[in-house]
Design brief:
With about 425 residues, the chain is α/β, with parallel strands linked by helices. It folds into three domains: about 180 residues, FAD/NAD(P)-binding domain (3-Layer(bba) Sandwich), CATH 3.50.50.60; about 110 residues, FAD/NAD(P)-binding domain (3-Layer(bba) Sandwich); about 100 residues, Enolase-like, domain 1 (2-Layer Sandwich). Helices cover about 25% and strands about 30% of the residues. The strands form seven sheets. The chain has a five-stranded parallel beta sheet. It has a five-stranded parallel beta sheet with strand order 9-16-10-11-12, with helices on one face. The chain has a five-stranded antiparallel beta sheet with strand order 22-23-26-25-24, with helices on both faces. Helix 1 packs parallel to helix 8. The longest helix is centred in the C-terminal third of the chain and has 15 residues. Bound molecules: flavin-adenine dinucleotide.
């Protein structure tokens, strides 16, 4: 059987690896518009900052594909798909396939304002983007968007000695991941490094004669020589849509729990695919590396006829700002729809919040210490109720076997939940 994989990122490579592991006899073709073997986009900001050698962003070399028996078609753009004929048309050739896995990733969203693509404007998605940014002399940098890529790009340029301003159109930084209070601490951490943060402000125009000279927002004019668009990622799904594959409500390629698309023998995984959130069950464009790998594993297994169901995308992002770790797991406050309870604690620059919806733990955010984030993430992933947590705690056998769990829970849960252990009296702390 010939399996074609469009995309040489985390998803495409994981799909190829799983297929070769289970049934190595199949022929695998892997396509990429980029010329490089697999690299990690997650470490591009570190490389940009100068903390990591360029050679170390690569996770594979060309010889590794040969060893695995994967046929590479790099620097080759797939231009169209003929799903009825089971055929791929690229800018170099036509290829038939028996199964197709689409793993085309995402692309940065660039707002349609005047001057948005002037020389001196960049995105940070690919290795080429990073190379271009690194080769261009910059001193005053504006980063538009304060998601994790925006924050990392801003810190990298700051570490390069540039004067950096972040512009975020919403009222707080990292609005997709953090609630207002932790976001405020994150903002302070950013400002402490010398980065200027402007929230609730929107870019209206980018001006310059030969290259960017200033940014016009709805509130001011900011002189700058470099602009980095980090205003979000869009799933790269034009190819799939043009071939007649259905899109989801968020604009990604629609897949079922087997990662199958709306036509037979076609699967999608990674940033291009629209799946569902493991905690809320709602449609989601996860855009995270572990999600891409897990979805690829499910797609690969189903494409070989093995039954595997995706359990949903689990949101978990860990960052570091000025050497202070921050983490967001599961849902945030404005996602909660049922009866909501929030446990929170602030201690100077440290803070954590745990979110409950209908008595189930559904989210956590932490700034300053990530000591127990893993334990609580496990509880969120398994959708534990407060009652179940209480039962675990009151099971002294379990406590003896895993005292570390008890210590973690003691720190995060209200006294009445662990009252059975501590002799504390029930009472609400909300
Ligand atoms: C700067 C940055 C930092 C990040 N940090 C984190 C992080 O800390 N944690 C985390 O979990 N995630 C992070 N991510 C996100 C993570 O990198 C992505 O979720 C993951 O790489 C997605 O993998 P993918 O295989 O779906 O897509 P991609 O890696 O985007 O790969 C898509 C592939 O498709 C190919 N392609 C697309 N269209 C065509 C076509 N028509 N023809 C041929 N080839 C095509 C591309 O060439 C590419 O090889 C970060 C991303 C960036 C950019």
């Amino acid at each position: 059987m010939r399996i074609a994989i469009i995309g040489n990122g985390a998803a495409g490579n994981q799909a190829a690896a799983v297929i070769k592991q289970i049934e190595p006899e199949h022929e695998i073709l892997i396509f990429s518009r980029e010329p490089h073997p697999l690299y990690s986009p997650c470490v591009l900001p570190d490389c940009l900052a100068g903390h990591l050698q360029r050679a170390n962003v690569f996770l594979k070399d060309l010889a590794a594909y040969k060893r695995e028996g994967v046929i590479t078609h790099f620097d080759e753009v797939v231009e169209s798909l003929n799903l009825n004929q089971q055929e791929i048309v690229s800018d170099k050739n036509r290829y038939s396939y028996d199964r197709l896995i689409i793993a085309t990733g995402g692309r940065p969203f660039i707002p349609q304002v005047r001057g948005s693509r002037l020389p001196g404007t960049f995105t940070l998605k690919t290795l080429e983007d990073m190379d271009r940014l690194k080769q261009t002399p910059s001193s005053r940098v504006v980063v538009v968007g304060s998601g994790n890529i925006g924050i990392e790009a801003a810190q990298a340029m700051n570490d390069r000695g540039c004067q950096v301003t972040i512009i975020e159109s919403l009222g707080q930084v990292m609005p997709r991941l953090f609630d207002e209070k932790p976001a405020l601490i994150i903002r302070i951490l950013l400002e402490r490094t010398g980065i200027q943060v402007l929230t609730g402000e929107t870019v209206r125009e980018v001006r310059g004669r030969e290259r960017v000279e200033e940014i016009v927002t709805d509130q001011r004019i900011l002189p700058c020589d470099t602009l980095i668009w980090a205003a979000g990622m869009k799933p790269e799904c034009e190819l799939a849509a043009a071939a007649g594959l259905e899109s989801g409500e968020l604009g990604g390629i629609k897949v079922n729990r087997q990662m199958q698309c709306s036509k037979p023998n076609v699967y999608a995984c990674g940033d291009c695919a629209e799946s569902f959130d493991a905690v809320s069950g709602k449609p989601v464009l996860s855009m995270l590396w572990p999600t891409a790998r897990r979805q690829a594993q499910i797609a690969a297994m189903n494409c070989l006829g093995q039954e595997a169901e995706y359990e949903g995308a689990f949101n978990m992002v860990v960052e570091e700002i000025d050497n202070i770790p921050i983490a967001a797991v599961g849902l945030k406050e404005d996602h909660l729809e049922g009866e909501a309870h929030i446990l929170e604690k602030e201690n100077g620059p440290n803070c954590w919040r745990i979110l409950f919806e209908n008595n189930r733990v559904v989210g956590m955010q932490a700034v300053g210490s990530l000591e127990y984030v893993g334990v609580v993430a496990g509880l969120i992933r398994k959708r534990f109720s407060r009652q179940e947590i209480e039962d675990i705690i009151s099971d002294s056998g379990l406590m003896l076997r895993t005292p570390w769990t008890m210590e973690a829970l003691r720190r995060y849960l209200p006294p009445y939940v662990i009252g059975g252990m501590t002799g504390g009296k029930p009472g609400s702390i909300y």
